[in-house]
Structures are given as structure tokens and as C-alpha cells.
């Protein structure tokens, strides 16, 4: 029976199903969907993916319905990544799988929640949302008869592990993740696929620009203040001319739209130049390099740093955001300490037979939505 999907249009250095390293647990292939389509579908149907709907990006999401959550952020990353992958002749299905799953391991209350949970777990291996994502897709999700986790392809797992590039220090992975589950098929020191590099840079593009939009809509800073970012001042001034003719929300949307487009075009042009210069013939050529191929230009890197610095000063360090962050930390710490003393009140007792108590509690707390964590905390405090 002939497979009903095509990958002949992909570049020679793109990831292709025919060259897949397979899965940890062997399964029969689908003739309708590629292995990476199946990965994407398993991710979308997972409980952890659904819970991203009620997990904070920057704000505690009960403050307003229009601010980003981890779910909307992941979908926006996926949209940007598919655009890049298609333009560069890469595997869109793998890129989408990585984009949709990269934030599965986030704790409630954004980075504040992760920081608090990491402190709680300091003596037990720590907590890291990227590694937690791997725990979720290899151990925690439980929907199948023959294995725990989602049994994703090695290519998807490789891209998730190396979301921030090659892993030079594997101690945290060994402490938090059962690395032997991957059958030693992943070389942590090598660069990931171009699809993984696209997903990572799309994450950067999405959260920078959408945090700008959320900050503007929340009134944490004004459109006029964006002029203080040198590399985008001309673009901002262009839109400020329309303030009298259009609603503020439309102006904000147009600014963000232009900024995303500017970054996407820059990545395409820079990556094509890097490909032409390095002339890779296969995925092996990509992985054996000592630097990424998917990248911003030097000028865009400066702009990216300026936007990050602006957001840190005007948004992440804003009093309103810090108040919410500290509240989230208190809830995480309170829940962790309570559940350590009363572990079986809310957590399935069978889980403690396979893992240390502290790690099981961390898994449970990390999997909570902001709303569920707040409700439980109100009951126990």
C-alpha cells in the first residue's frame, strides 16, 4: 500500500520520514499520516496541551481574556514556524510538532512559577520547564496500552531536548529525565535539525512581539515609548501618524504585524545566505556544525536584544507584573510543601512507586493550571 503523504519536495538537508530513527517503542506506520503528523496529533490531543489554555504567559490570565496564554503562544509560534519551514523547504509537520509542544512543561504562573518550583526542588535535582516537557512526552502522559508517554519520534525528541541548542551539561537531564528511555539514539552535543532551529527562533519572534502587544494593551507602556528602541523607531513613527484616524488597538496590531514580518523576512534571507555559504547536503551536515544555520542577521540580533531589554525594564519588572509573580510564587511554594506532607490527598498513590516523592509532587504541581493551583491553595491555606 502506497503511503498517502509526500515529502519529495523537501530539501536534501530537511528531515524526512524515510530517514527517521523511529520511536522508543516500535509501532506500525500509518499510510495516511507521516510520523511527524502523528507526533503533532498526539501532542494536540494530550492533556498537557489542553491545560496550556489556562497557564500564564506573562499575566495571570484571569485578569483579562485578551492576553496570551501558553496555548495561544504555542499556536502563534507554530504559525510563524510553518511559514519559515515552507519558505526554506523544510519539514512543516516536524516543525509544527516542535512548536506546539515546546512549552508543555511550563509550571503555572509563567517563569515565576518555574523559579519557585526550581527552588522547592533544589535538593532533588531542580526543575526546568524544557526538561519537564521531555518528562511529559516520555513519562507523564498516560493514554496508551503499551507504553507511557506519547512515544514521539526521535527527531521530535531531539528537537525538544535541543530547543536552546546542543546540551553541553547533561547532569540536569540525567537527574530529572530518565535519559536511558531514549536508547542512546540522541547525541546531546550535536546541533539539532533545521526544523528544530526554526521552531526555536519562531518562539523568540512570537514572545518578543506578542509581549509587546500585551504590554501595550495592558497600558504598561505607551506606543510613543517604543520610539526609545532605536532600530524600530522609524517603523513606530510611521504608525503614529495614523493615531487620529484609527483606534489604538488597530495601531498596535499593525505595529506587531510589521515587526513580525520584518523578523521573518530577515530569518529567511539570513538562513538562505548561510545555506548557500555552507552548502549542506544532508541532515548530518547540519548536525555536525558548530553554529546554527537558522539565524537573525547581525542587525536584527541588535534589534532583538533592544526589544528584550525594553520588555524587561517596562514589562517584566513592572510593579503590577511583579505583584502577580510574587503571588504565584507563594502559591507554588505553599502547594509543594502541603503536598509533600499530604502526598496522597490529591495525587494517585501508584505514582510514588516509580519515582521519588518530591519529583512526583513537582510533576503534579507543574501540571496544574493557574486556576486549579489557585483554587487548591485557597482550600489548604
- How many domains make up the coordinates? 2
Going by CATH, the architecture of the largest domain would be Orthogonal Bundle
CATH topology assignment of the largest domain:
Hypothetical protein af1432
Instruction: Say how many strands there are.
Output: 0
Instruction: Determine the number of helices (DSSP H or I, runs of at least 4 residues).
Output: 16
Low-confidence stretches: none
What's the name of the CATH homologous superfamily of the largest domain? Hypothetical protein af1432
Distance between the termini: 60 Å
Return Rg in Å: 21 Å
Structural class category: mainly alpha
Overall geometry comes to: globular
Helix content: 55-70%
As a percent range, the share of strand residues is under 5%
Main β-sheet, in a few words?
A: none
SSE topology string? HHHHHHHHHHHHHHHH
Query: What is the name of the CATH class of the largest domain?
Result: Mainly Alpha
The average pLDDT score comes to 92
Key features?
2 domains; 381 residues; Hypothetical protein af1432
Outline of the structure:
The chain is an all-alpha fold and 381 residues long. It folds into two domains: 32-192 and 321-380, Orthogonal Bundle (Hypothetical protein af1432); 220-315, no CATH class. Helices cover 56% and strands 0% of the residues.
Amino acid at each position: 500500500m502506497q503511503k498517502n503523504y509526500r515529502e519529495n519536495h523537501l530539501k536534501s538537508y530537511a528531515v524526512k520520514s524515510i530517514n527517521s530513527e523511529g520511536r522508543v517503542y516500535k509501532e506500525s506506520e500509518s499510510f495516511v499520516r507521516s510520523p511527524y503528523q502523528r507526533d503533532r496529533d498526539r501532542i494536540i490531543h494530550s492533556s498537557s496541551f489542553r491545560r496550556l489554555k489556562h497557564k500564564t504567559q506573562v499575566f495571570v490570565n484571569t485578569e483579562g481574556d485578551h492576553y496570551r496564554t501558553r496555548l495561544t503562544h504555542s499556536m502563534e509560534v507554530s504559525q510563524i514556524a510553518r511559514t519559515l519551514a515552507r519558505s526554506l523547504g523544510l519539514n512543516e509537520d516536524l516543525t509544527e510538532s516542535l512548536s506546539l509542544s515546546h512549552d508543555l512543561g511550563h509550571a503555572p504562573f509563567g517563569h515565576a512559577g518555574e523559579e519557585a518550583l526550581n527552588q522547592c526542588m533544589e535538593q532533588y535535582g531542580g526543575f526546568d520547564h524544557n526538561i519537564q516537557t521531555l518528562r511529559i512526552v516520555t513519562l507523564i502522559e498516560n493514554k496508551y496500552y503499551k507504553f507511557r508517554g506519547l512515544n514521539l519520534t526521535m527527531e521530535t525528541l531531539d528537537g525538544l531536548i535541543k530547543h536552546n541548542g546542543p546540551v553541553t551539561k547533561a547532569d540536569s537531564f540525567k537527574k530529572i529525565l530518565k535519559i536511558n528511555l531514549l536508547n542512546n539514539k540522541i547525541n546531546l552535543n550535536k546541533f539539532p535539525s533545521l526544523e528544530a532551529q526554526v521552531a526555536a527562533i519562531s518562539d523568540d519572534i512570537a514572545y518578543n512581539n506578542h509581549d509587546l502587544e500585551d504590554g501595550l494593551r495592558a497600558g504598561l507602556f505607551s506606543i510613543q515609548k517604543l520610539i526609545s528602541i532605536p532600530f524600530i523607531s522609524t517603523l513606530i513613527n510611521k504608525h503614529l501618524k495614523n493615531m487620529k484616524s484609527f483606534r489604538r488597538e488597530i495601531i498596535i496590531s499593525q505595529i506587531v504585524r510589521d515587526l513580525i514580518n520584518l523578523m521573518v523576512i530577515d530569518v529567511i534571507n539570513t538562513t538562505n545566505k548561510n545555506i548557500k555559504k555552507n552548502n549542506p547536503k544532508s541532515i548530518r551536515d547540519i548536525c555536525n556544525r558548530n553554529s546554527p544555520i537558522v539565524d537573525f542577521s547581525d542587525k536584527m540580533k541588535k534589534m532583538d536584544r533592544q526589544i528584550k531589554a525594553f520588555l524587561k525594564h517596562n514589562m517584566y519588572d513592572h510593579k503590577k507584573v511583579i505583584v502577580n509573580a510574587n503571588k504565584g510564587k507563594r502559591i507554588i511554594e505553599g502547594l509543594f510543601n502541603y503536598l509533600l506532607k499530604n502526598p496522597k490527598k490529591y495525587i494517585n498513590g501508584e505514582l510514588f512507586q516509580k519515582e521519588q516523592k518530591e519529583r512526583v509532587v513537582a510533576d503534579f504541581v507543574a501540571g496544574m493550571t493557574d486556576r486549579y493551583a489557585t483554587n487548591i491553595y485557597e482550600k489548604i491555606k
